[in-house]
Amino acid sequence: MVNAILADLSPEFAKIYSKRGRPSIAPEKLLRALLLQILFSVRSEPMLLEQLRYNLLFKWFVGLGMDDPIWDVSSFSKNRDRFLDGKISAKFFAAVVAKARSEQLLSDEHFTVDGTLIEAWASHKSFKPKDGDSGPGDGGRNADVDFRGKPRSNDTHASTADPDARLYRKSKAAPAVLGYLGHALMENRNGLVVDTRVTHATGMAEREAALEMIKRRKRSGRPMTIGADKGYDAAAFVDDLRRLGVTPHIAQHTKRRSAIDARTTRHPGYETSQRKRKRVEEIFGWGKTVGPIRKVHFRGKALVTHLVQLTAAALNLVRMRNLGVCT
Fold first, then answer.
1. How many domains does the structure of the chain reveal?
2. How far is CA 262 from CA 110, 220, 265, 270, 310, in A?
3. What's the angle, vertex CA 269, arms to CA 266 and CA 273, rounded to 5?
4. In this structure, is residue 151 part of a structural domain?
5. pTM listed for this prediction
6. Cα(134)–Cα(144) distance, rounded to whole angstroms?
7. 272-318 per-position pLDDT tens digit
8. What is the domain range of residue 10?
């Protein structure tokens, strides 16, 4: 299955690699290695390359001979960054989704959307005032900083380690952390991911990303339902869905007035969507336990997006194998 997808992407690989100069890492081998890192929960690229030196299973999957030299970490990272310029991760994810569609594994009418907090590779100490006044400290490279009781917000502060990260609290019971928001659109037939987004962590990001992904999937004249948790139960969001011709199968908020009424809840399909929507949590659970998106080791929104797309593609490949249609 991966062989066929990589063969289809060969013209895209040719665009980002020069025919002159010293030979580089073959993009097919690089992408296979990155998939191995996700599927086998390898924590870092140096550890991945270390395993490639002695793990014959890894060598076989990547396409290396027993005596072939293993790449240097800096060369591996530099070649991986080329994928950003060619948007290879997005194209690989799209190819996996297209493969699932060709095998009739996808629903075109019933979907679920959700978001999750992705912790950034940055500490609270790096979250400093934008005007440069960080206050008194003990000095040194890792100075003691006491920010308790001091107001800090994304309007006045920014992380010096990862400027794209935002201070965000997922709920009142959760601590505020520097991070991003990852979003997934799941089709309800087999629980496959059909679209992903990574955004800055803001209060409106989940609903804005959901609308963007839904607009891409909505086909004119075709019915479409979207399931979601009660965090999406907002009048403006529900109205936007109905203007698009999408039926909002969103969980009703019980502590305030809900925008979902009997026009939606009286249908049997609403209950089915509410039951199916819980599978979207499995996507984020897999991505944060087996995959690497609980706390990313990359900095910058572009690299985090690349990682989320590869993780979603890897999960789809696992689920497609489990369905017994693709091997």
1. 2
2. 19, 25, 5, 10, 40
3. 115
4. no
5. 0.90
6. 12
7. 999 999 999 999 999 999 999 999 999 999 999 999 999 999 999 99
8. 2-86
